[in-house]
């Protein structure tokens, strides 16, 4: 049996950040993780280069039943604080669009930084250690793993969400919360590609790989102007991943296929300047040709010279392409999702320390709680911020 001040379940972004902070405060800290390697999601994130934060992070970039919950932690540990940390370690990184920061070489560089911080702070990281059960004892908690058992004063649950089961995702965090009578909100796969109904899959067969700039809007009015990507299963790309967090089964999404144009004006201009040319050939200068061909086959785009379009036809075509409606069949689910929406209800936790209001010494941080960021480095920033706040409090 091993005794420690702080036991952290999960050597992911949130757990490792929390561990280093607590260690620097002189606490004895052990992190247990069932994986063979630490921070496996950091390693695969951002296509192997990890989009580790977003310079424009603000509480508005998060979904949570209590929109105020993340404010305190995000303000006490900002994107700039994390940038300062990686700068001290000499990480090479670059800025992409929309405030996103990525490692130049490999996400492994970031994992090395987290592990170095843990080493400097005297943290013990025990891998291949699966937590099997947790019990409350007089002065803290007893935790049994497949290897040994631990006694700790503070128990931090940083076990993540349900995405990517093959990378060790498990529901243990939710189970521990429920064991101690904390409410867990329904979990849903988010930042995830859409699958399409059979008839749409047939219509778009052959479009796989086509990407175009759009503005996608959900039924609740949230919209993102980014690319969509046709895949052999359905629709993906950043705009689709973003909107998936706001989409619910049975709803439609509206896609402005030409967000940079006023199509009815363009069509009228074409009529006066290039009247003999066909509608489809002209539209193929704005949209991918294969996609235009699908719309011709559907009868949406008339196969005739543009001068033959009458005013109602111009309006109808413009409305259609500016507000293309698509009703997804579902999503690809946890297998490919980047995050889990829902989780431990933030009403159960202190927004300053992340400690359970009901259960002294029990903390939840990172993705296991009901705080879900947009695509773009926001999820890691919440891991750093919640890990930091909790590490100061345990
Ligand atoms: P996790 O990283 O999931 O860590 C939890 C740990 O707990 C795991 O290591 C797991 O092995 C361990 N664990 C679980 N159960 C047990 C148990 N019973 N016993 C012991 N250990 C256990 N976010 C961004 O901000 N930027 C990106 O570029 C980005 N890209 C992503 C790409 C992909 C493909 C995916 C899937 C996600 C991406 N995300 C990204 C989201 C981000 O990875 C997560 O939000 C973040 O990793 C959550 O960190 P965490 O520490 O809360 O949990």
Q: Helices and strands in order, then pairings?
A:
Layout: E1 2-9, H1 13-24, E2 29-32, H2 40-44, E3 51-54, E4 62-63, H3 71-76, H4 79-88, E5 93-95, E6 100-103, H5 107-120, E7 124-126, E8 131-137, E9 140-145, E10 149-157, H6 172-179, E11 184-190, E12 194-195, H7 198-203, E13 211-217, E14 223-230, E15 234-236, H8 238-244, E16 253-256, H9 263-273, H10 279-283, H11 289-297, H12 311-322, E17 324-326, E18 330-331, E19 339-344, E20 362-364, E21 372-373, H13 378-393
Parallel strand pairs: 1-2, 1-10, 2-7, 10-20
Antiparallel strand pairs: 3-6, 4-21, 5-6, 8-9, 9-10, 11-19, 12-15, 12-18, 13-14, 13-16, 14-15, 16-17
The structure holds flavin-adenine dinucleotide.
Keywords: FAD, Flavoprotein
InterPro entries: BaiN-like, BaiN-like_dom_sf, FAD/NAD-bd_sf, RsdA/BaiN/AoA(So)-like_dom, RsdA/BaiN/AoA(So)_Rossmann
Domain RsdA/BaiN/AoA(So)-like insert: 189-339
């Amino acid at each position: 049996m091993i005794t420690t001040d702080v036991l952290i379940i999960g050597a992911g972004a949130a757990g490792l950040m929390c561990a280093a902070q607590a260690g620097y405060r002189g606490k004895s800290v052990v992190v247990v993780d069932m994986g063979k390697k630490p921070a496996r999601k950091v390693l695969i994130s951002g296509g192997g280069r990890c989009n580790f934060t977003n310079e424009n992070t603000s509480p508005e970039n998060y979904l949570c039943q209590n929109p105020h919950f993340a404010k305190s932690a995000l303000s006490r540990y900002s994107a700039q604080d994390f940038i300062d940390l990686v700068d001290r370690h000499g990480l090479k990184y670059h800025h992409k669009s929309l405030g996103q920061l990525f490692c130049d070489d490999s996400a492994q560089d970031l994992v090395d930084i987290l592990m170095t911080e843990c080493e400097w702070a005297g943290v013990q990281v025990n891998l291949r250690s699966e937590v099997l059960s947790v019990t409350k004892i007089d002065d803290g908690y007893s935790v049994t793993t497949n290897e040994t058992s631990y006694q700790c004063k503070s128990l931090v649950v940083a076990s993540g969400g349900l995405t990517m089961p093959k990378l060790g995702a498990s529901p243990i965090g939710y189970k521990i919360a429920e064991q101690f009578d904390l409410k867990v909100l329904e979990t849903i796969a988010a930042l995830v590609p859409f699958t399409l109904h059979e008839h749409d899959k047939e219509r778009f067969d052959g479009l796989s790989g086509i990407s175009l700039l759009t503005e996608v809007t959900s039924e609740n009015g949230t919209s993102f102007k980014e690319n969509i990507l046709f895949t052999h299963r359905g629709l993906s790309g950043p705009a689709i991943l973003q909107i998936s967090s706001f989409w619910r089964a049975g709803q439609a999404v509206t896609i402005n296929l030409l967000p940079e144009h006023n199509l009815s004006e363009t069509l009228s201009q074409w009529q006066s300047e290039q009247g003999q040319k066909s509608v489809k050939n002209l539209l193929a200068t704005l949209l991918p040709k294969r996609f235009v061909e699908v719309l011709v086959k559907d009868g949406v785009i008339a196969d005739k010279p543009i001068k033959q379009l009458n005013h109602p036809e111009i309006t109808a075509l413009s409305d259609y392409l500016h507000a293309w409606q698509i009703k997804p069949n579902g999503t690809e689910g946890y297998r490919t999702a980047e995050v889990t929406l829902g989780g431990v209800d933030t009403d159960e936790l202190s927004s300053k320390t992340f400690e359970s209001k009901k259960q002294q010494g029990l903390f939840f941080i990172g993705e296991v709680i009901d705080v879900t960021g947009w695509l773009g480095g926001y999820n890691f920033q919440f891991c750093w911020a919640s890990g930091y706040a909790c590490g100061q409090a345990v």
